[in-house]
Amino acid sequence: MHLPNYRDGSIVNLMQSILAGLDAPGAGGVHGYLADLRPEEIADARHVVLLVVDGLGQAQLDSGPAPALRGSLRGTMTSVFPSTTASAVTTFLTGLAPVEHAMTGWFMWLRELDAVVTPLLFTTRVGDTDLASLGVSPADVFVGPTVFERVRAECHAVLPAEIVDSRYSRAHMRSAAPRGVEGLGALVDSIVDIVRHAERRTYVSGYWPALDALSHEFGASSVEARRHLAEIDLHFARLRAGLADSGTLLVVTADHGFVDLRPESRLEADSVPGFEDMLARPLCGEPRVAYCYVRDGCRADFVERVVEGLDGAARVVESGSMVEDGWFGLGEPHPRLRERIGDFALVMRGDYAIRDRVAGEEPFRLIGVHGGVSREEMRVPLVVVPAS
User: Fold this and answer.
1) How many other CB atoms are there within 10 angstroms of residue 14's CB atom?
2) 188: CATH
3) Do 202 and 187 lie in a common domain?
4) How many domains does the chain have?
5) What CATH number is given to the structural domain containing 277?
6) CA-based angle 117:318:84, to the nearest 5?
7) Are 341 and 323 in contact (CB under 8 A)?
8) Of the candidates 71, 175, 299, 367, which lies 20 to 30 Å from 274 by C-alpha distance?
9) Mean pLDDT confidence for 24-41
10) What is the domain extent for residue 310?
11) Angle at CA 219, nearest 5°, toward 213 and 221?
12) What pTM was estimated for this model as a whole?
């Protein structure tokens, strides 16, 4: 297993360095600063730009067509647990570890509805019903202040137009000026434009999701994903040139990496005899880390029966022990964390993934997946262009 290094080597520590470098009160805390990018370097920059390329794991960067990005590679960090967008991007936008923000995966049980929801989409899993129509507000799901509310800088967030106005985005971009863009070129142009026209110190948060989408559909090592990585690399070089001599510190990183599935490693929950009968609700979390809510009376033999049924494809870990052992981060857990991670977690081994299906869902056909504790999923690059 490759667990997060929350002491000085994770994306949580990166965000603590950025917060401290931009004079945010209370930065550092229990998690501390990133060893490879200290607050002092950030404090010396007039502007700070953080670009998160969803799905750009260190393994993809090492083997992919990305010479410009590799030329500015300073080091490697870990993601958070689980190594997935819902948890990691929330860390980038709040500076908090999952133990603090309690965003635990793509699917999450919501106590007030007694239902499994998709928090990034702000809908129920069954029926895709908007949570607001059921009386749930973003404040009920998303916790903590944003990075933009804490730093002493003019803040901007640049991301694709189709998600700029989502409830998740609006909740996590408080105190930032949002810009929705069409295409990677427009994202780069917008960042350069913001910096070049800034009249005071500026923090710009950029986000690009297309590599993640291609890696899910075709695989992280696919021609399609590699082609887009080459495009990202060209635009990174253009961004670097556009920010030259502006006093801007540019950081590029990712939320997670990927593993690609073989057909035989894509498991369905109903193929394990008696497994779903022991569950009180559908699986939550991710195909690589599935949280299990076990029916009363089934806990005693749950582990043995599932381990036998999965034939070594997963570790069955008591969810509470993962909190105590620091998988989700250090410090005091958020009060809602434990209710969102079930009784046990299936932590998948090798390239295995597991998924159940509820009414209306399409079959599980993803090739690239993430969320687990493999080296490929957990390691992300730290690309730094110092201020000049």
Assistant:
1) 24
2) 3.40.720.10
3) yes
4) 2
5) 3.30.1360.180
6) 45
7) yes
8) 367
9) 95
10) 263-367
11) 120
12) 0.97
